[in-house]
Write a structure and sequence with these properties.
Blueprint lengths: L2 E4 L9 E7 L6 E2 L4 E6 L4 E6 L3 E6 L8 E2 L3 E6 L23 E2 L13 E3 L5 E3 L2 H10 L17 H9 L41 H16 L2 E9 L1 H11 L10 H15 L5 E3 L4 E3 L5 E3 L1 E3 L2 E3 L2 E2 L7 H16 L13 E5 L18 E15 L2 E15 L5 H16 L7
Parallel strand pairs: 15-19, 19-20
Antiparallel strand pairs: 1-8, 2-4, 2-7, 3-6, 4-5, 5-9, 6-8, 10-11, 12-21, 13-14, 15-18, 16-17, 20-21
Helix pairs in contact: 1-2, 5-6, 5-7
């Protein structure tokens, strides 16, 4: 009996993905453990391995197809001796299968809802992905006039782009007036304004940007943020960093950010009530200190995690962070390397940003925004002096951490950074 190969859930929050490449082609023999495809999520590109043997009878979703819902059949595997005619696409693309063949490292996520269908003029229903519907609405396109190239005729992003490139006419009644405001829907990332009347390009969001838009809009809307800022003098830290990096046997190159990671981890161990997240009618206090660090990559950002950072030395943190950042930019992180964590650091100091306030990365309760280290005038023992100073701003979820607790945490971070020998104990 043919076995459906499904779009796997590569992370607990994944609802759709992109079929980047097929490593096996129709007619190829498949053995358990063979890599059959590469799937792009909002954060990384991951390989999907087969757990059954057979012949790849039919590819239902071609390489490059985007916004493919989790648990949607993407190919059909035939058992030995089965006819290729048995590999006809199933009538219902989102039907729950009896057998799965994709082996992934993360727990499966619930199936995404079937794309809503639009009625055609002749009474037929039009299948379209949510992104295609939104793009069509913004551009004033009539979905009923388009032909879908997605699975089972579903209209996808590429169809909308092709229609726009071909100069398809708009439906005046469907196009919002320039400047018109629509009421936002909870959890939706649809823009509040209509299509601009000024000359513009339509740049569809990739999976990562859609996820960033959804999660950070939710964070800003639902999390009661407040902000605490302190100035941290770094002269002692910079001297220590220079001495450590100058050692002949050094197999590391410490950055200021490595010291910040370790200082935050030590501060969270000293102030454990801040190492928590909001759970409705409970708080979840973490027993491990796992620090995430925002890394800019093409098309967005990702937050690889240094696990157990309070238990690791500066050299280990530095080397581990460099490796995580390199694999993040190459799209090779595994889900467990960027999901979770109890605290995040966002450092824009290398861009010359003096001070900023970061948006909390849910479900965490705190994020530290680190600015540039610069020479500033300070008063010491009643006299004016020059010191290397860095602004650090802590964004806090008030449901979890109150003002005094947040101030205590930030004071601990400052104390450790200004007396960096604590980091070596």
């Amino acid at each position: 009996m043919p076995i459906q190969i499904l779009m796997p859930a590569l992370s607990p929050t994944m609802t759709e993905g992109t079929v980047a490449t097929w490593q096996k082609q129709e007619g190829d023999k498949v053995e358990p453990g063979d890599v059959i495809a590469e799937i792009e999520t909002d954060k990384a590109t991951m390989e999907v391995e087969a757990v059954d043997e057979g012949v790849l009878g039919r590819i239902l979703v071609p390489a490059g197809s985007e916004n493919v819902a989790v648990n949607t059949p993407i190919a059909i595997l035939l058992a030995e001796g089965e006819d290729a005619a048995a590999a006809e696409p199933p009538p219902t693309p989102n039907a729950a299968p009896s057998v799965g063949v994709a082996e992934v490292s993360a727990s499966p996520a619930p199936a995404a809802p079937t794309p809503a269908a639009q009625p055609r003029n002749n009474g037929e229903r039009v299948l379209a992905s949510p992104l295609a519907k939104r793009m069509a609405k913004q551009a004033g396109l009539d979905l009923a006039a388009l032909t879908g190239t997605g699975p089972h005729g579903r209209i996808i992003k590429a169809d909308i782009e092709a229609a726009l490139a071909a100069g398809a006419g708009t439906v005046p009644s469907a196009r919002p007036l320039a400047g018109a405001i629509e009421a936002p829907v909870a959890g939706d990332t649809t823009p509040a304004v209509g299509v601009p009347s000024d000359p513009h390009e339509v740049v569809p969001l990739n999976t990562m940007r859609r996820t960033i838009a959804r999660r950070l809009a939710q964070a800003k809307r639902d999390i009661p943020h407040f902000y605490l800022t302190m100035a941290v003098e770094l002269d002692s830290l910079l001297r220590l960093r220079g001495e450590l990096n100058g050692r002949r046997d050094a197999d590391y190159k410490l950055s200021v950010n490595d010291f910040v990671i370790k200082a935050c981890a030590m501060a969270l161990r000293r102030v454990p009530d801040a190492n928590a997240s909001f759970g409705g009618d409970v708080l979840y206090r973490f027993t491990n200190v796992d620090v995430a660090v925002a890394v800019a990559i093409d098309g967005g950002l990702i937050t690889p995690i240094v696990r157990g950072a309070d238990q690791k030395g500066l050299a280990l943190i530095s080397n581990e962070m460099k490796e995580l950042a390199e694999r993040a930019r190459a799209g090779k992180l595994q889900p467990e390397e960027y999901q979770g964590g109890g605290f995040t650091i966002s450092n824009l100091g290398m861009y010359g940003v003096r001070e900023f306030s970061a948006v909390i990365n849910p479900p965490q309760a705190c994020i530290l925004a680190v600015g540039a280290a610069e020479q500033r005038p300070v008063v010491k023992e009643g006299a004016l002096a020059i010191a290397t100073v860095m602004s650090a701003t802590l964004s806090v979820d008030h449901r979890v951490v109150d003002g005094a607790l947040g101030a205590e945490l930030l004071q601990q971070v400052k104390s450790i950074l200004q007396d960096p020998l604590q980091l070596l104990l």
